[in-house]
Amino acid sequence: MKDDLLYDLSVDKAAKTVTIVREFAAELSLVWDAFTKPELLDQWWAPKPWLSRTKAMNFEAGGRRFYAMVSPEGEERWAVQRFTVISPQTHYQFFNAFADKDEHTEPEGSDWDLRFSEANGLTTVTIAIFNESLERMERLIEMGFREGFAMALQNLDVLLEALPRRH
Predict the structure, then answer these.
(1) With a threshold of 0.70, does the pTM exceed it?
(2) 88-126 pLDDT, tens digit each
(3) How far apart are CA 55 and CA 73, in angstroms?
(4) Residue 151 belongs to what H/E stretch?
(5) What are the C-alpha distances in Å from 153 to residues 141, 147, 167?
């Protein structure tokens, strides 16, 4: 990540929400694709040395992404994202829950709201993650969400630099 790009992660325990604001030195269409196409998501959506592996994805309202984060030893952590709202290149939402390898989800999850905007050659992504319970949010933070997601976003910086520009 370039040092002058915005990165902010805040936790609001009263609202059970984690908010991330992140700038990328890339055009909006590239960043949108990186967040919405499985072949690109799998290149960055996990903190190294873990990898992301999408088993199924249908990016449309009512669709889902079923994927695993896979450790170098082969340990798998599965999750399901159920897309609820999609406004191309500006906004999408999904409900996220951890699952087992057969796609049986945990009872609690989180609602993710992602907003994309572009100005002056930079794309800003604002992600609000509302958790169903404070306990779930605190458990995720204790498990290293803050550090892990920051590492994943750094992976995205590297990917964006490698993708061909469209302008």
Answers:
(1) yes
(2) 999 999 999 999 999 999 989 999 999 999 999 999 999
(3) 19
(4) helix 145-162
(5) 16, 10, 23
